[in-house]
Hints:
Elements: H1 2-11, H2 14-23, E1 28-29, H3 31-37, H4 41-53, E2 57-62, E3 65-70, H5 77-93, H6 111-122
Antiparallel strand pairs: 1-3, 2-3
Amino acid sequence: MKELAKLFLLLAEPVRLQLLALLSIDEKCVCELYDPLGIPQSTASRHLAQLRTMGIVEANRKGVWMHYRLSPEHWKPIWVEPLNAAIKAAHAELPVELKVSSCCSLVTVTGEKLRKQTTASRRKPE
């Protein structure tokens, strides 16, 4: 019963519900989570850590960025119905158009491509 009470405490925070709704779409980098919600990265990371501690989400490091996804295979059977209902309700509250910066995509730029971009941006207009 204590586990269920902890779950409801987690779900009582609107930011965590919004994070779960975004993660219900697919795996996301932390930058794709805090930017659309208009919250600082540290706030998103703190809430994600709490969800991760309970086993609701999983994290995977890709380069310098953390990527998160729902982990329903680790959910306790008694959690499934409340979590699914909470995620569905939060999903309906998300803005229709999500604006996302792609900070993590910068990590995938190769050294050669980065040098070309940097050199091009340093050229003075003629």
